[in-house]
Amino acid sequence: LLSSLHFETAIRVYPVLHWIAAGIGMLVLLQPVGAAGAWIGAVTYVFSGASLSDAFYPHILPGFMLVPWILWAFRRDGKGEARSAILLGGLFGLDFLAADVFTSGLAIAVAAIWLAMEIPRSASRRHGLRLGAGVFLGLLLAAPQIVATAAWIPETNRSILGMKLGEATLFSVSP
To answer: N or C: which terminal CB in the chain sees fewer CB atoms within 10 Å?
Structure first.
């Protein structure tokens, strides 16, 4: 959608659009706690240090934006289990296609924590199956990219030469 804009404009609009979509996702997710709580949650999520620092790592923003939407899709009871699993699978698929392992893992972990802490025991099996189906459908949706990446990884320098833990830490947690 942003390809019709000049790059300088698009790169400035890109984070803002993802922050808006993440904020709307938090508003929708937190709707049951009331308007004030939902707004506080949305503002806190969107303007958190992790979110604002992601402006310098734009590849993380799509996954960051999708986390509240994935939890919302998992939390809600849809008109049918199949429809709900398809929606969840589509959102997980978009997250997997964003190719950020951290936000994908975070989305799965948050849904699993919600399953363990908020879903009654009587419904946990049904919701667990829906979560599993959603992750599976998401992996299926992202399979072309996952397979291509798996085929490409052995050709990279890091895979051939290996990386020491200190190098990986320097790249991921640089002072």
So the answer is: C
